[in-house]
Every structure is written in structure tokens, then in C-alpha cells.
Amino acid sequence: MSWFKRPTPNIDSGSESNLDPNFDSDSLTDADNDPDAARAGNQVRTEGLWTKCPGCRTILFKAELEANLNVCPKCAHHFKINALQRIDLLLDPGYTLVDGNLRSTDPLNFTDIKPYKSRLAAAQKQTGLNDAILTALGSIGHHKVVLSSMEYAFIGGSMGAVVGETIARAIDRSLASKQPLIIVSASGGARMMEGVVSLMQLAKIASGLAQLDEKKIPYICLLTDPTTGGITASFAMLGDLNIAEPGALIGFAGPRVIEQTIRQKLPEGFQRSEFLLEHGFLDAIVPRAELKQYLIRALDFMQP
Length: 304
Ligand SMILES: [Zn+2]
Description:
Layout: H1 26-29, H2 35-39, E1 50-52, E2 59-61, H3 62-67, H4 83-90, E3 96-98, H5 116-127, E4 133-140, E5 143-150, H6 161-177, E6 181-187, H7 195-214, E7 219-227, E8 241-244, H8 255-262, H9 273-278, E9 284-285, H10 291-302
Parallel strand pairs: 5-6, 6-7, 7-8, 8-9
Antiparallel strand pairs: 1-2, 3-4, 4-5
Helix pairs in contact: 6-7
Bound molecules: zinc ion.
């Protein structure tokens, strides 16, 4: 998209009949199609440099936004960040990524409007990951932790067998090393293309988390925008501490489905972190810039 584009045709300097019959008249009206015009500086290309904040509609310079941890400097809207950026944000440098080699086998050979296999291939190409999660072993301050971070850009951060197995392995690592487990959730729910296999992951993860609880190993949930469906209904809310970023969408069913079911208008801010904190579903809302220090303090408290 170019922002500065001539909306009207160039000034007509003569009648059509004076033009060369082979001349492409489109190039007069659409500078986009005319590379010579672009080179000559008739338009300014700004693609990719600016972004609009959905919170306050301010046009933000992307480099400035990234320097501010992808939080709007005007209204503190928290933009989505990817799984690797999240790990970089929370862990000290020198962490190790593990269990990233698992891939879905498409157990149902599923096809909706397009085959699940081609969705997987596209998501793998787009994100550079094998599935919607990354696990890292590393340090957060003076605490050694196991950290799993979900990737929303990979089929909506949905949980199939691979995400389930990766989290189960993270729990095993946490059990074996007695290091606290932190899971950062960003997900639309269970992955419907894997049917019941995706739902079975919930039981597997929940039973693993129960073992962590028995061994008194801390488990912290960080809920980010959005955390919905089966993820909220299971491991994202099972932490010893459940914290969220400001303004994150957190819920089970979407607001439209709930309104249609209960036939009532939902209150303002329904399913946002602030509403959930007020109603006792969260322990704290922590701005992105303070997350790391907050987690260190929480772990100090849990593991004196
Ligand atoms: Zn803003």
C-alpha cells in the first residue's frame, strides 16, 4: 500500500487521438504500475515503516514502537509479539531452545476449505516454527526456569498434539530439574483439525501440572492477547499465579456466542484482563515492561 498516491489522473495534455495507439493509458493514471515514475520520486514509499495503533489510532513509527517493547507510547496498547520475542523479553541471554523438532502428523487427514497439511506447511513457512509453541531453558534473574511460549501466528496459536506434547515435555523437564515452569499463552483454543486428539492434550497437560503441584514446583501462567477456548479452560488458568498483560482478550466462548445464548448485552470491557482481575479470575495485570522484574519477585517469594 502506498500512502501518497495521486488520486486523480495526470493533467491531460492532449486528446486521446494524439497518443501512440500502443501507449498504455493506465500508466498515466496509476503511478503504482509505473516503476519509472516511482523511481523519479513521484510517490513516497512508506510501506512497512508505520503502523496504526488499534487503541488510540495514532500512526506510530515501527522502529520506535519496537524500541518500546511493542507497547504504544501514547495509550499503552500492548501489540502482539511472537514467541521468540517473548522469550527474549523474559529470559536472560544464553537460553537454549528445546523440543522444537516435533511436527503434526495430521492424524485425521483433515480437510476443511483447504487441507490441514497445506495449512501446516504455510504456517511453518510463515513463522519458521514447526508448531505453535517454543520451549526454552534459561535464567530469569537468578532463577533457572523452563519457559514455554505460544505462537499466535501459527494457526491462531491452536493446540494440537504437538503443542500438547511440547508442554508435557516442558513439565517433565521442570519435574526432573525442579525448576519452575512458566507458560505464556496466546491461543484461540484447541486445534479443530486434530479433533479429539487436540482435546486429549488437555487431560495430559493437566495431569502433568498436578504432579508439579505435588512436588511443590511453582507454575506461573502469563496470559497474553488473546487467550481463549480450551486453553483458558485448562492450563492457562491452572497456575499457582495467573497473571496477564493489560487489555488482553481472555475468555472461553466469544462474546457474540455468549450474547446469542443468554440474550443479554454484555458489559463494557467484558473478557478483557481488567474485567477478569476485578472478578477474581486473575491475580495481577502486569505491563510488559515490568513483567521480568515481577516474575523474579514472584519466584523469590515462591522459592525463598
Ligand atoms: Zn495507542
